[in-house]
Amino acid sequence: MARQGQKHARIGSTCSRWPMNSLRQNPLPVAETAWREIDLSAIASNCRAIRAAVGQGTKIFACLKQDAYGCGAGKVATLLSEAGVDAFGVVSIADALAVRKAAPGKPILMYPGIGPNAVDLVRDLDLTISISGEDDLAGWLATGASLKVFVKVDLGFWRAGVAPASLRRLLDLCASQGNVAVGGLYAHLSEFGDAGSPASAQVARLTPLLEELKTERRLPETIMVSSSESLLHHPEFDMGAVDPGALLFGLTRSSAGRRVLPTRPALLAIKARIVALKTGHDSMGTPPDLPGFHPDMRLAVLGIGWGHGVPRHLRSSASVLVRGRRASIVPPIHLEHLRIDVTDIPEAVLGDEAVLLGSSGAARITLPDLAKAWNTDETGVACALRESLRRVGVAQQFKPNQKEGE
């Protein structure tokens, strides 16, 4: 009987690891099996760094693609509107709705993606659309609506945008329509690296056209070619406006850039709880012939999987942190669960936090570390996370002598 009592006591102490007492006061992340932690103050800080770099004379179009790079378009738009950004850029109507609700008076540029069937929403939300060619323009003109447009130019990205040789004709067509107001002209520079044209060559395709339009007094009010990477590497391309995206969220850092900005990631952590623990046994059969499985291993199951945005296929070195120690991820990844090997962490119990990104004790998994394990880059991690992985707002703690960006 004493032994049975001891067993019940151990079970009781294990269950007490689940932090139930604070559930009513703080339902997230206590009530979740997986969540991400977002530091909105980092986004505000990054925005200030960008403003200091480009100056007051250059507009900032805050690019909030993919639900503000996974940070929540509505909350981020509120924050950046208060921080003084001049306008926003989005791709989806869902993001446009969230931004318009959060920032009623700010211009919103729709990057290529929506079509004339969305004309009623364009009107109701007071959106500026992108025009990439004559067919594009014709479709919108067929709606009969009054349109605010930016013309997009393809300088070598081989994506959306009118070819430089056709730009003047497209602008002429826009000018011939009484219901079309061209407020800007913009391009996104190629990200092909050595496989594409250098940034300077791309901009050189546009510069003579801009000079001609200026001489003819037909130059649109806003000219914009610089997003995150070009903003870091080519200050001379700031022009009338810039549209940083990844840089606002601390997802791109270039030590070789001509500008080195003190940015820090807004995505601080990805965490999950241990929802099951078991030790391998002969009655379960032979361990699967997969990397990481071995007899008598102690497995922990985490409440996170590819349904939350974790890739189905990870590098064999992928791991998480439990109680300050590394635990290997054991494939395959499932919709709502993944396994980790806690054989060497005997103190791990139900309800423990497992850290996929962030710190546990003295150990840490950085965003570049996670990107490598997930076979992507930092932006790829942030934008792959799904709505099912709830967001929790946290504030990063700095030491008194620590500078932003460290």
Automatic annotation (TrEMBL):
Pfam families reported in the protein's UniProt record: Ala_racemase_C, Ala_racemase_N
Transmembrane domains' residue ranges: none
Residues in Alanine racemase C-terminal domain copies: 267-394
Catalytic reactions on record: L-alanine = D-alanine
GO molecular function terms attached to this record: alanine racemase activity; pyridoxal phosphate binding
Modified residues (N6-(pyridoxal phosphate)lysine): K65
GO biological process: D-alanine biosynthetic process
InterPro entries: Ala_racemase, Ala_racemase/Decarboxylase_C, Ala_racemase_C, Ala_racemase_N, PLP-binding_barrel
Alphabetical UniProt keywords: Isomerase, Pyridoxal phosphate
Designated name of the protein: alanine racemase
Natural source organism: Mesorhizobium hawassense
